[in-house]
Amino acid sequence: MLKALQQKLPNEHFIYYGDTAHLPYGNKSEEALQSYVRDIVQYLLKRECKLIVVACNSAATVLRNIENLPYPKEKIIEVISPVVDLIAEQTKYTNIGIIGTRKTIGSGMFNGTLTQRNKTLALVTRATPLLVPLIEDGFVEEKVLFPVFERYFQGFEKCELLIPACTHYPIIYKQIEAFFKHKLKVLHTPKIVAESAEARLHALNLLNQECHKHSDDEYHLSDVTKDFEHSAMFFLEKEVHFQRTLLPVVY
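The chain above was modelled as a monomer; its predicted structure follows.
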């Protein structure tokens, strides 16, 4: 997600916060996730961020339930709504699959909202939690993934489009399409969210048309580990410096 945002918005300064100390989010309680998200939003507010992108589907499922969130909702983009808006309005695909963490799939935010807005859609959903650790550990070869796909994708045979509702899954888009012999398209969700962020900044008259960066983008983690640094290089395709930043921060 961050890579897509940086490519789409090259003139913006990014402050990334990854809550690695509490991963995985997909198996956390509603109360815990609300607490984590609130602390991160408060931190980014203190840093005077003009727009917040909640780049985790599991975190996005609790965002609407957080009371007294100290940040204007029109300045928050989460990764579910832009995808739902696009799919609900399109007419090309009818049979659609959705995969994600247990938290994301269990929330019903994708299938529930899509069914309400477009009753012609036939949806198949499944929690696929094993894919995240496989991707993080670099096991993305077809010979490793295909046996897992055989189990997870039972019932997806008629799907024409797959919504990958987890920010890890872009790494394995090609493998998923190959498994389905390219009869199924995987939706490129990072691109959709990046376009939504650009449109929101433009609508709020906050988009930098020219480069105003005075410093490099910042990368903060609640816990810096070698494994995450390795995964980040895998996702971003570049080396970055992570700073350990515990929350809440007292100013």
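The mean pLDDT is 92.
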